[in-house]
Amino acid sequence: MDAQLKRGMLEACVLSVLARGDSYGYQLVKDIGGCVEVSESTLYPILRRLEAGGYLRVYSREHNGRLRKYYGITGAGRERLDELREEWRQVLQVYAFIMEGTEGEPA
Fold it and tell me: Which sign does the torsion angle of CA 82, 87, 92, 93 carry?
């Protein structure tokens, strides 16, 4: 998969998961991993970029005697998610066009 395409897809996945509720890094990897392969080393730069863009808020909470960093979506993050969803609808239309008529044709 193209790296740029995957990066955009992962941003949408992160925002989509966080739109359901705040979460932390390891849980995000597990939640997104059911859809697309992602590692912590891939996820954390995306989280930092989304935070820098004002799409996420970050806070710490104690868990089992240690501080855990949590991420929550902001209003701007919800707007960005809506934009990404619209972009994906357009991408799906293009893929549908490309795939139209190719069913059953020899490769």
Answer: positive
